[in-house]
Amino acid sequence: MIAEWKKIEKKQFASVYLIIGTEDYIINETKKRLVANILDAEDTDFNYANFDLDETAIEQVIEEAETIPFFGDRRLIIAANPSFVTTEKAKSKIEHRTARLEDYLNEPVDYSILVIIARVEKLDERKKLTKLLKKQATVIDAKRPNEAELKKWLQEISNTNDFQMDSVATDRLIELTGGQLTTVMNELDKLMLYKLEERIIRVSDVEGLVVRSLEQNIFLLLDKMIALDISGALSIYYDLLKQKEEPIKILALIASQFRLLTQIKLLEKQGFSQQQVAQKLKVHPFRVKIGARQAKSFSYQELTATLERLAEMDYEMKTGYGDKAQKLEWFLFSLQDQKQKQVK
User: Fold this and answer.
1) Domain total for the chain?
2) Is DNA damage given among the entry's keywords (predicted)?
3) 330: which of 8, 71, 213, 309 is 20 to 30 A away, CA to CA?
4) 141 touches 1 (CB < 8 A)
5) How far apart are CA 274 and CA 289, in angstroms?
């Protein structure tokens, strides 16, 4: 995918692109690069068209692609949601004359670039049109990268921009952003801008500059709890309160994370790999990796008992029983006491 981006920036365009996947960052960046390198600012209004195939028939898209450019060299035509090559059910009753697309794929015009975006994990490979489309188009994979792919990607982007970022800083950047690609890339851009003169990104830069989400602060809070660092856990908790986060919301996220740990523990007992757990629970693989690490510090019985206690606290908070902020403080202390007894 990065190789295709480089070709686009060198103005080495394919006649037809097929983007397959659900990762918005890759889809949006590909579109942005195509627009920037194909169209001049003054002819965008005349030579750019964007269609939703749930609302527009494919033959209309092809007609647009076959229209000669107006005041420019090329036209850029983007069409999303091609249900006729997926297993997804169409959202409308529009009938597509896909034979027009087949004809176009076999003989595309040289003055238009057609981009078809399928926001699905994979196409319906049984269909003849799918095979033809994949054969004739330049395919860009917009799937969510796994951790190893993401690390390699970050290193490559850093090197391309003449920055140095070691593996410790890379790992920390991924951890603090939860492995979410759009967030990772936004934070990397910010880090590169901040370190523009030195061009070295250290783990201290990552920890000092990367904005943590509420969910990420909860992960870190649990890490502190598991490490019996009660002062560290309370520091994060008090910071969240200063940011006007409601104790009941913090409690809900803590409960959600313990629920995830319980599910991971159960599925790992049944022999599921972390990748399979992520697919089964429909959560980001990086969350499962962190959760699996945290779950090792608890037995299944401890996790279920903690969930019961959190449910009781949730009920007490919602019914106005006791001080909400103080309840979570005592929960942190009680969890530490529980873990210290185990160590002894």
Assistant:
1) 3
2) no
3) 213
4) yes
5) 7
Using an 8 Å Cβ cutoff, are 44 and 180 in contact?
A: no
pTM: 0.70
Q: What is the DSSP letter of 45?
A: H
Q: Strands (DSSP E) along the chain, which ranges?
A: 16-20, 48-52, 75-80, 112-118, 138-141, 164-165, 200-201
How far, in Å, CA of 224 to CA of 218, rounded?
10
Q: Digits of tens for pLDDT over the chain (344 positions)?
A: 778 988 999 999 999 999 999 899 999 999 999 999 998 877 777 899 999 999 999 999 999 999 998 877 899 999 999 999 998 887 778 889 999 999 999 999 999 999 999 999 899 999 999 999 999 999 999 988 888 888 888 988 898 889 999 889 998 898 888 788 888 999 999 999 999 989 999 999 998 898 877 878 888 888 887 777 888 888 888 888 888 888 888 889 889 889 999 999 999 989 999 889 988 888 888 788 888 888 888 889 989 998 999 999 888 888 887 788 888 888 877 776 665 555 55
**What is the β-pairing status of strands 16-20 and 48-52?**
unpaired
Residue after which a domain boundary falls, among 116, 141, 166: 141
Residue-number span of the structural domain to which 308 is assigned: 214-343
